[in-house]
């Protein structure tokens, strides 16, 4: 009898549980696939957008801040509007992975179709056709050459270069150098990361004591980060000095 009561109670609660999985509100758009509604951090599922520090090449082979552009285009398209995000799971960084919509429009689909994100096929094939259409239209990042966002985070000399047309021969050298240029790729990405003598990755914020002395050079294994969270996700720790 008691078990039947518990079952009946669970059935009554199921709609409430389902509703609780939805997060609704006007978001702060952190990056092309990362938003925050209230205190809840949300990762847009099924896609991977360039981080704010990522650079791409345009049709003239010139570097441009495609990560910043992806974020700003999303803000322009849906910023200031109420979003409804259907949460599916929590990722290892404590973010809610969700499919989000604005006025019935699938935001992830819009990002991929306009070339501001890639279909994250490792996790979902929902947006594979949209990526193909964006590539054929040379939309967004597809206008020139770029590194897939998941490869950008761990880029090296073997990293593949993507593009709607054949990338220029020097594309890899230009894009890899952008990781450690002497000037930050954007005003949002000013945290410096370097490797110490013990092989540890250390990050330095502008307020750190040795910040100004860290020289950003590829040969020194340095790179820029847009947030402490990004630096720690890459395996770096904060400087102790």
Automatic annotation (TrEMBL):
Domain TNase-like, chain residue ranges per copy: 26-144
Gene3D superfamilies: 2.40.50.90
Keywords: Signal
UniProt keyword Signal, yes or no: yes
Native source organism of the sequence: Bradyrhizobium sediminis
InterPro entries: SNase_OB-fold_sf, Staphylococal_nuclease_OB-fold
Protein name: Thermonuclease family protein
Signal peptide stretch: 1-20
Keyword Isomerase among record annotations: no
């Amino acid at each position: 009898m008691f078990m039947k009561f518990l079952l009946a109670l669970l059935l009554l609660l199921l709609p409430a549980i389902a509703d609780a999985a939805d997060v609704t509100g006007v978001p702060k758009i952190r990056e092309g696939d990362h938003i925050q509604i209230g205190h809840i951090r949300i990762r847009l599922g099924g896609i991977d957008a360039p981080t704010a520090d990522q650079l791409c090449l345009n049709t003239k082979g010139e570097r441009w801040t495609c990560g910043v552009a992806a974020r700003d285009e999303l803000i322009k398209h849906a910023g200031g509007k109420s979003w409804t995000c259907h949460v599916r799971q929590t990722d290892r960084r404590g973010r809610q992975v969700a499919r989000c919509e604005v006025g019935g429009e699938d935001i992830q689909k819009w990002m991929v179709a306009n070339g501001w994100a890639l279909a994250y096929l490792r996790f979902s094939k929902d947006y594979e056709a949209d990526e193909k259409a964006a590539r054929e239209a040379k939309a967004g990042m597809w206008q020139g050459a770029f590194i897939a966002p998941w490869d950008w985070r761990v880029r090296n000399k073997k990293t593949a270069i993507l593009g709607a047309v054949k990338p220029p021969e020097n594309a890899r050298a230009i894009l890899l150098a952008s990781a450690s240029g002497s000037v930050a790729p954007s005003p949002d990405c000013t945290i410096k990361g370097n490797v110490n003598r013990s092989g540890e990755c250390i990050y330095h914020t502008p307020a750190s004591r040795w910040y100004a002395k860290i020289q950003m050079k590829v040969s020194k294994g340095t790179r820029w980060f847009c947030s402490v969270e990004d630096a720690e996700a890459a395996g770096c720790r904060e400087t102790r000095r």
